[in-house]
Amino acid sequence: MLHFGLEIYHKYIIKQIELLRKAGRPAGPRIGKRRTRKDGKP
Question: What is the predicted pLDDT for the residue at 22?
Answer without folding.
Answer: 82
